[in-house]
Amino acid sequence: MSDQHYDFVVIGGGSGGYAAARTAREVCDRVAIIDSADELGGLCILRGCMPSKTLIYSAEVLHLAREGSLFGLRIPEAAADMPALRERKRRMVAEFRDYRVGQLESERFTLFRDKASFVGENRVRLVSSGVEITADRFVIATGSVPQVPPVEGLAESGAWTSDDVLELDFLPESVIVLGGGVVACELSQYLRRLGSKIIQIQRSPRILKEISPESAAVIEKAFRDEGTELYTGTKLQSVIRTADSYEVAFAHGEKTVTAKAAHLFNALGRRPAVDGLALGAAGVEMDPLGQIRVNADQQTTNPRIYAAGDVCGPFEIVHLAIMQGEVAARHATGRATDPVDYDTRTSVVFTDPQVAEAGIPLTEAKERGMDLAVADYPFDDHGKSIVMEARRGFVRAWADKNTGRLVGADCVGKDGGELIHAMAVAVSLRATPADLLKTHWYHPTLSEIWSYPLEDLADELAK
């Protein structure tokens, strides 16, 4: 079969890949997408953002119902209907999936449902059909897959991944959760609130090591108060699967502890999905973290090939994957573009309370030598959060004393993922605390809480 040539080829039809294809199609006539997944739609829609947040919100409603007495309510019984929960999740996902599939299958693109493997610097072979495709430019956006660290017995144990947890149609009696990252914490709390006994084992000294220690401490206390048996600062030793349970041995302090549960959930992180791509044949190199090495324009070590999303990092966040895909496509098609500005990034962890950050993290800003003014304010002294029985956490913001501009903020508290966007806008527009105090902060709202640290910052910067 003869070769086929395209102006632009994207490998991977998820959020980053589709963004790249859509952006390239603005100026290119022949754009192809290669996707080998069993189901089109991408990680975020099918097995990530949308299904997990659907289920997590249901668990939050259940939790509030069980806490009804705090609000003067008498709710005799509240329980999860697991088959109905899964069906609602599937229905929600189907709406998002069908829309994305319609986009991918539209006449704007040529869609290949096959696996690509590079056989040259500008050539891939479709593994099933044997067709070879050349292109002026490629974008790799194949996402990530769960990783299995070298813990004795783990690879053979048949442990659940997040994919399995999101598809449960029964309530697990007990689950050992390995890991303390975003996925581990979000789904650990989800299962606990449904009614499962949870034993969570984290190797680092604290969970959510990507966020501030102060924020992580709030979440750790919330987990323990809700009944999760949480271990931090551990070293996993072995996993044993018996006829009806799992046993996990780990070092904790000076002792070896053995945890036992009916099920095991491996949430020890993800790795770039690059198996079978034969990147070496295309001259595409990996960095020391195992991700595809890219420059600020998302260009790999082969200037014809770009990468976006989880395969290259540095953050596994869907809106950043979209931005990276757009940058890659614009640069690849000779258009002016600005690299993704990670100093204005936003991130959210959908635990309860939620954790959110915008701009340069406080620790990183200090490491850069910035002279900072920092101010915070607690939710347990804020009117709207008190009446909502949402007293956990705080908001915090920091500004560069030399410029007066806000450079970062974080929030751990009720609906923190919504609240953070006020600060995300401020950081991106390089506003000062005084600028933001011109805003009408309506009382009583959760958002109003930002006005208190902003007042403190404005006073300090005015000195």
Structural class from helices and strands? Answer: alpha/beta
Beta-strand segment tally: 21
- State the distance separating the first and last CA atoms: 74 Å
Number of domains: 3
CATH superfamily of the largest domain: FAD/NAD(P)-binding domain
The number of distinct helices, counting runs of at least 4 residues, comes to 13
CATH topology assignment of the largest domain: FAD/NAD(P)-binding domain
Q: Which range does the strand content fall in?
A: 15-25%
The shape is: globular
Overall radius of gyration:
24 Å
What helical percentage do the residues reach? 25-40%
Low-confidence runs (pLDDT<50, min 5 residues)? none
